[in-house]
What we know:
The structure holds two protein chains of two kinds.
Chain A: E1 4-7, E2 10-13, E3 18-25, E4 31-37, E5 44-50, E6 53-57, E7 64-70, E8 73-79, E9 87-94, E10 105-106, E11 110-114
Parallel strand pairs in A: 2-11
Antiparallel strand pairs in A: 1-3, 3-8, 4-5, 4-9, 5-6, 7-8, 9-10, 9-11
Chain B: E1 3-5, E2 10-14, E3 19-21, E4 24-26, E5 32-39, E6 46-52, E7 59-61, E8 64-69, E9 74-79, E10 88-96, E11 104-105, E12 109-114
Parallel strand pairs in B: 2-12
Antiparallel strand pairs in B: 1-4, 3-9, 5-6, 5-10, 7-8, 8-9, 10-11, 10-12
Amino acid sequence: ETGVTQTPRHLVMGMTNKKSLKCEQHLGHNAMYWYKQSAKKPLELMFVYSLEERVENNSVPSRFSPECPNSSHLFLHLHTLQPEDSALYLCASSQDRRGGITEAFFGQGTRLTVV
Amino acid sequence: AQKVTQAQTEISVVEKEDVTLDCVYETRDTTYYLFWYKQPPSGELVFLIRRNSFDEQNEISGRYSWNFQKSTSSFNFTITASQVVDSAVYFCALSPNSGYSTLTFGKGTMLLVSP
């Protein structure tokens, strides 16, 4: 079982659909993240949850709605997306604390195509 | 604002050649962390190294070595005797010491190692 598992691996959705991406971490970490990887653009941090509380939202449009019900699970709810939202969405987790940070472990990503 | 620059978009080498991937960063933070990740075709980001800004010692791990130079804001990565399995996209990333990992990534360098 991998440390960070994302489902589904591939998703095709219409612009009017509602779908959710799921991430589960089995590493006992206390922080989880969503990143977006578009073609020809650097990986972009979308959301950060630390101890199940959202601590960062990097100006992400409201059509992306994260949810962190517990420290092991993270969701990204998608609604009324645009074709330019097509990308690889990567989830990550880390064990972070005051006084220092550790490396983030990533899942394999969900390849999202909006048609 | 933080910024990471990986000027090399793509590098092609023949197996057993040594190759250096460049990374230059910008930050106003006095304490920060630097990372290198590898992204094979399967998509997940694989952690390679984490470096604290206070620790300027170079590090070697097998065929991999890293050269951190705070004076030039660089954190270069060298693969010695490259192998076909090293073919991947390599990302350099920077995070402030905020208590959780908020990574700013470079655009990545695609390394192609041919037999």
